[in-house]
Design brief:
By secondary structure, this protein is of the alpha/beta class. The chain has 2 domains: 414 residues, Metal-dependent hydrolases (TIM Barrel); 124 residues, Galactose-binding domain-like (Jelly Rolls), CATH 2.60.120. The strands form 6 sheets. Strands 2, 3, 4, 5, 8, 11, 12, 13 and 14 form a 9-stranded parallel β-sheet that branches. Strands 19, 20, 21, 22, 23, 24 and 25 form a 7-stranded antiparallel β-sheet that branches. A 3-stranded antiparallel β-sheet has the order 1-16-15.
């Protein structure tokens, strides 16, 4: 690949250099540790002029007494989104070979007064007018409510690292439809081309920072492709950068008038390419329904604008239904978005939506399930945020059926009702970078679950992600941030940040850019106390555990496949299809066992000999059981119930229980969920719960 091959050559050069250094060390003798480690965190050749860091003291290294890495994790950021959306939606760059003045400047069409900042008008309201000058004055941008200006300048990321952050997930992001309808662009709108470019630019940014620190591998910004590599980087005190993907039509998997525009071959080819690029996590859908899944809606005027994009992309607007459970998607509302609605064909209007129907009719498609399983085979983590609740519920069913831990909610877009299911799997949750009071309140609400499952907490800044960030609380607010303050580990001193001629005070600037992350964390400590921050400081460890679990995943043996099976009854109405019991264990989801249309029916599986049984998966056809139980037996006569439910809803179910030895497994339907009988495509029996 265009990126991976140069990367491998660089790694080869680093290896040779390391061997030469090792030989020299043997010849010359040991070097004093203080000389080898002297100010390793300070670049030797920072560009001048440049942004200051405002942090002194050596970054912490190593692990704690229990062998756990320490540090914060930002599970959702967009360093390179200025390269997406046609290249002119997000103004400014995270770095430039020509220096800070070139990196931190506005889009040309924003001059002289921002009156052509159309996306500002759509997302923020007002007339878009602002002072376009960035470096060195920064009068109007970046700002907590400016959605179109660069927030991820490398030195601001460096400040966050120096303040205690140790993992950063850089989600490569774009949207082909937004690109196509936006007035200003300097490149094409193919989503995969944008993803490739953003990955390339991230590797180049790593090289740029390495140069400042004296050569390959020496910089603080380290792209990682495995949890073990990330752990080593964090232990060294550096920043582990994980590549993710958040895009609306991955691999060309859009749908037009409900017809998928991709196939399984496109998905396999796309996933392989992403792995080659170094991507370790991804979203299956984002903003628009696609061929893989339905999305969780946006609200307000932005939601209406995105719904217009949905129509332009797919030929259909969002469709809603009454939610089937306590979880629900974001309410669409009926707010106007005049600039976006002008893009609709004449005579086409955005539909209105009832307040009692807040769930997307679209869930996880068969292609979406195939993509999920493809990610699992490759040890990738699935991002659940932006999935409709129907799609997320179906995704959880698959994850649970496989005991796959690689599930992430990175920025508060998953319905909170799924949180315990996430933690049970071994997944990781992060909260959106919101105002401190709200962040603390939500952290306290979910604390009992984190303590129950012994997990840390993360945040998702979503910088450059068109979301909005913490507004300033004001210099006269209770418990304001006072400068300087110490980092959470106590080893560094954080003072006010100066970039150009502007000095940033969190109390009056809020979450204006990435350099304010340490200040925001200090504000959380002031508002909510040390305990919340301590939970966040264990976030990197928990994230890496989830990632490691994904990488080590191996499908457990299904001991039911091909086993002997009998049933209380089987339908016989189609002379060309067999609905007998053995069809539920033949390994083919295109066949099924179907009972007579009665409540009390059972399917019994003989494993041939006693085996450990701790998990039973049931793939229901349309005719499912509302109430049923799972029984085990040693002899086929004496049964013990190990699991039951009376709220079955069909789809893919997983029954987990304390593993026990058994030769026979029986599924007994007690009450039907439909007018028909019970119908199972496949039953799996596994040892591990």
């Amino acid at each position: 690949m265009v990126i991976v091959q140069p990367l491998r050559r660089r790694l080869g050069s680093v290896t040779v250099a390391s061997l030469l250094l090792a030989v020299l060390a043997l010849v010359l003798g040991p070097v004093p540790d203080s000389a080898a480690q002297s100010n390793w965190w300070e670049p030797s050749a920072r560009p001048a002029p440049d942004a200051q860091i405002g942090v002194t003291g050596e970054p912490f290294q190593g692990t704690d007494a229990q062998g756990r890495v320490r540090g914060f994790v930002d599970a959702h950021d967009h360093i390179m989104s200025n390269e997406g959306f046609g290249g002119r939606l997000i103004c400014g760059k995270p770095y430039s070979e020509r220096g800070v003045a070139d990196a931190l400047k506005d889009c040309p069409e924003h001059y002289p007064d921002g009156s052509l900042a159309v996306f500002d008008m759509i997302t923020k309201g007002g007339d878009g007018r602002h002072d376009p000058v960035g470096w060195p004055t920064f009068k109007d941008w970046p700002a907590h409510d400016s959605l179109t200006h660069q927030q991820n300048y490398y030195a601001w990321i460096e400040r966050a690292w120096r303040g205690g952050q140790r993992v950063l997930v850089n989600d490569l992001v774009t949207n082909g439809v937004i690109c196509s309808v936006y007035f200003f662009k300097d490149r094409g709108c193919d989503e995969m081309d944008a993803i490739r470019l953003e990955a390339k630019k991230t590797y180049e940014m790593q090289d740029y920072i390495d140069t400042m620190y004296g050569g390959p591998g020496k910089g603080f910004f380290r792209i990682v492709t495995s949890s073990a590599q990330a752990r080593r980087i964090v232990e060294q005190g550096k920043l582990a950068v994980v590549l993710g993907v958040e895009t609306s039509e991955p691999f060309g998997c859009k749908q037009i008038l409900d017809v998928a525009q991709c196939g399984k071959e496109d998905i396999d080819r796309g996933l392989d390419e992403l792995k080659e690029l170094g991507v370790s996590s991804m979203f299956l859908c984002h903003k628009f329904d696609n061929a893989l899944c339905g999305v969780r809606y946006d609200s307000g005027a932005l939601g209406t604008a995105i719904n217009v994009g949905q129509f332009l992309s797919t030929g259909t607007f969002w469709k809603t239904e009454t939610c089937r459970g306590p979880q629900h998607d974001n309410p669409i509302g009926n707010a106007a978005a005049p600039e976006a609605e002008k893009r609709l064909p004449q005579g086409v209007d955005v539909p209105s939506y009832g307040s009692d129907a807040q769930c997307n009719t679209r869930g996880l498609t068969d292609l979406g399930a195939y993509a999920m399983r493809g990610m699992m085979k490759r040890g990738m983590m699935l991002e659940l945020d932006h999935m409709s609740v129907k799609a997320a519920g179906q995704a959880f069913d698959i994850l649970e059926s496989e005991s796959y831990p690689g599930a992430i909610s990175s920025h508060s877009w998953m319905d909170l009702g799924w949180t315990e299911r996430l933690y049970k799997l071994g997944g990781f949750a992060a909260q959106y970078m919101g105002a401190s009071e709200g962040f603390v309140k939500e952290a306290e609400r979910t604390r009992a679950l984190r303590e129950k499952y012994k997990v840390g907490y993360g945040y998702g800044t979503d910088m450059n992600g068109v979301g909005g960030w913490p507004a300033p609380r004001g210099a006269d607010a209770p418990n304001p941030v006072t400068y300087p303050f110490r980092s959470t580990d106590g080893g560094s001193v954080v003072d006010e940040l100066t970039t150009g001629s502007r000095t940033w005070d969190f109390n009056t600037a809020g979450g204006a850019h990435y350099g304010m992350v340490p200040d925001w964390i200090e504000d959380i400590r002031r508002v909510g106390g040390q305990k919340v921050v301590d939970e966040m400081f264990t976030g990197a460890e928990s994230y890496l555990r989830t990632w490691a679990g994904s990488e080590s995943y191996e499908p457990g043996e299904n001991v039911a496949r091909g086993a002997s099976a009998t049933a209380s009854s089987a339908q016989w109405w189609n002379p060309f299809e067999d609905f007998k019991a053995h069809r539920a264990v033949d390994g083919d989801t295109g066949t099924r066992w179907a009972s007579e249309w009665k409540d009390d029916q059972w399917l019994r599986i003989d494993l041939g000999s006693a085996k450990p049984v701790g998990r039973v998966t049931l793939d229901w056809e349309e005719a499912y059981a509302k109430s049923y139980r799972v029984d085990l037996s040693d002899d086929g006569s004496n049964w013990r119930t190990v699991w039951s439910t009376d709220v079955g809803d069909g789809g893919l179910d997983t029954a987990r229980f304390t593993a026990a030895q058994a030769r026979y497994v029986r599924v007994t339907g007690l009450k039907r969920g439909t007018q028909w009988g019970y119908s199972l495509r496949e039953v799996g029996v596994h040892a591990a719960g």
